Amino acid sequence: MTKYEIMYVIRPTVLEDDRKALIEELNTIFTSRNSTITNVNEWGIRELAYEIEDHKRGYYVVLDVVSNDEARTEFDRIVRIKEDIIRYLIIKDIK
């Protein structure tokens, strides 16, 4: 099991209920595959550093997870498919 910090940005046009469902769906990828989410930090709507797909703002979510390779690769696969995710980043935590 490896520690990861994951950040993803959701389109600002996604409704609040849909956004909560999306966050829960992505969290379930880890919890259903014997991984642990140690922290979920929703930063909310923030300005993007540069325009992405005609959006200047996005809803930021940061996760701290202890995950196996299966859960991480499945998250990577699913987040690439989701059109409401405009950017994501997975960083291996070496602390």
Using only C-alpha atoms, the radius of gyration works out to 13 Å
CATH class descriptor: Alpha Beta
Based on CA inertia axes, which overall geometry fits?
A: globular
- Spatial order of the strands in the main sheet? 2-3-1-4
Helix count equals: 2
Q: Just name the CATH architecture.
A: 2-Layer Sandwich
- Overall pLDDT metric: 88
Q: Please indicate the count of domains.
A: 1
Secondary structure class reads alpha+beta
Distance from N terminus to C terminus (CA atoms, Å) equals 14 Å
Q: CATH topology, which one?
A: Alpha-Beta Plaits
CATH superfamily: Ribosomal protein S6/Translation elongation factor EF1B
Low-confidence stretches: none
- Report the biggest beta sheet as strand number plus sense, adding barrel if it closes: 4 strands, antiparallel
- What fraction of the residues are assigned to beta strands by DSSP? over 45%
Topology pattern, helix = H, strand = E? EHEEHE
Tell me roughly what share of residues is in helical segments.
Answer: 25-40%
Structure description:
The protein is of the alpha+beta class. It has a single domain, classed as Ribosomal protein S6/Translation elongation factor EF1B (Alpha-Beta Plaits, 2-Layer Sandwich). Helices cover 31% and strands 49% of the residues. It is built from 2 helices and 4 strands. The protein has helices at residues 16-31, 69-81, and strands at 2-10, 36-52, 55-67, 85-92. Strands 2-3-1-4 form a 4-stranded antiparallel beta sheet, with helices on one face. A hairpin with a 2-residue loop joins β2 and β3 (55-67).
